[in-house]
Amino acid sequence: MQTTGSDDAGNSPTKKRWVVKIGSALITADNGLHLDNIHQWSRQFAALMNDGVELVLVSSGSIAEGMHRLKWFERPTAVHELQAAAAVGQMGLVRAYESELQAHGLNTAQILLTHDDLSNRQRYLNAKTTLATLLKLHVLPVINENDTVTTDEIKVGDNDNLAALVANLISADQLIILTDQNGLYDQDPVKNPTATLIKQADAGDPKLFEMAGPSNNRLATGGMQTKILAAVRAARSGTDTVIASGREPDVLLRLHSGEAIGTKLTATHKKLVAHKMWLANQLKVTGSLQIDSGALEKMRDGVCSLLPVGVTGVEGQFRRGELVSICSAEGDEIARGLVNYSATEATLLAGCKSDKILERLGYVNEPELVNRDNMVAVNARHH
Ligand code: GLU
Fold it and tell me: Which atom of ligand 1 is the closest one to the Cα of 145?
């Protein structure tokens, strides 16, 4: 981790596929959308796109703008009211980006996603192909969560994470999170004037999470912790994350020219193969398998197939093919994978040698409960 400037902290100008995420606090002013900010960013988007950068924008602000248009001064708590505000505000948001980009002769496209879209393999692949096509057509996709239809079960929940999922989807080189802070500090800069900006760190460094505080902004969903989780997620596709102030003049152009601005969280782990990345991005698990110390030991250096003999407990109701957590006796999640047997079958099989599966069940699906090809390690506790 480094807190002083260095060439290493710069962003290579050769990196060409970017996801830019802009948060609600930057997009809205007291009297609605911050049109001047949108104007400034759009000018930079156009310049980057014309310079060969393939750009995808993830923009928040629909609820904030909807509240403004509806003259609501307090954020509603009722889900249907939030959804209504999002529907109203999204109109203003895309209209602003569209007219700005049109002035530069560029087209924009609106894409509204939910987590459900990305966990369904078919829709995930569709979204991937559509985004790739739009990038080839030199169009700027403007993405937001489909707040009008999302409920807790199917939503990503915050746009930092949504942007990271999009970065995974298009294998972006960089995820740039523009926010109203200068980046990540080693302490809370509001409470402690000696706090130092972290210029560069490994995205998976567990110390980062302790340093970052939760959000206390009325409009924003995610604070710094959410941004760090997003960086961890982005790193799975080899994507570096930069957290920088969206108010910094020409921030995107300067990052493109290699200037170090804000905090850069680099992806140092090996990139996951496409199928495993999709697996790793599943946010909802339906149950868990507790494993014994022997199985745990085997997973120390990466995933390996989980046999029934290594399982000591089964929790939750899951069916064959669903995603389950694989946990140690202490309850720490070690890996996630698609299970070959239902919860009822797994309970009958726990502790049993694979050659006894037929005897216990009367049939055999596979000798292992979870095959290593359908499993991803959960490296740090934040993965
Ligand atoms: N989708 C929400 C909106 O547009 C924002 C969520 C977030 O900022 O994380 O208002």
Answer: 1
Does CATH place domain 2-276 in 3.40.1160.10?
A: yes
Cβ of 204 below 6 Å from ligand 1: no
77-124 residue pLDDT tens: 898 999 999 999 999 999 999 999 999 999 999 999 988 888 887 888
The answer to whether 135 and 172 have CB atoms below 8 angstroms apart is: no
> Residue 162 CA: which ligand 1 atom is closest?
9
In the block, which residue shows the tokens 């080693």? Answer: 186
- All CATH 3.40.1160.10 domain ranges of the chain, comma separated, are 2-276
Beta carbons within 10 angstroms of residue 248's beta carbon: 15
Q: What is the crossing angle of helices 224-235 and 159-169, to 10°? A: 10
- Measure the CA–CA gap between 280 and 274, rounded to whole angstroms: 10
Q: How far is the CA of 64 from the centre of ligand 1 (A)?
A: 8
Q: Which CATH architecture has domain 285-382?
A: Roll (2.30)
Atom of ligand 1 nearest to the CA of 93: 4
Residue 102 to residue 42: CA distance in whole angstroms: 10
The per-residue b/e assignment along 294-305, b for 16 or more CB within 10 angstroms, e otherwise, is: ebbebbeeebbb
CA distance 62 to 104: 24
What spacing in Å lies between the alpha carbon of 60 and ligand 1's midpoint?
4
- Tell me the pTM: 0.80
Residues of the chain with CATH 2.30.130.10: 285-382
Q: Indicate if ligand 1 lies below 6 Å from the C-beta of 308.
A: no
- CB of 24 closer than 6 angstroms to any ligand 1 atom: yes
**Does ligand 1 lie within 6 Å of residue 145's CB atom?**
yes
pLDDT per residue over 31-57, tens digit each?
789 999 999 999 999 999 999 999 999
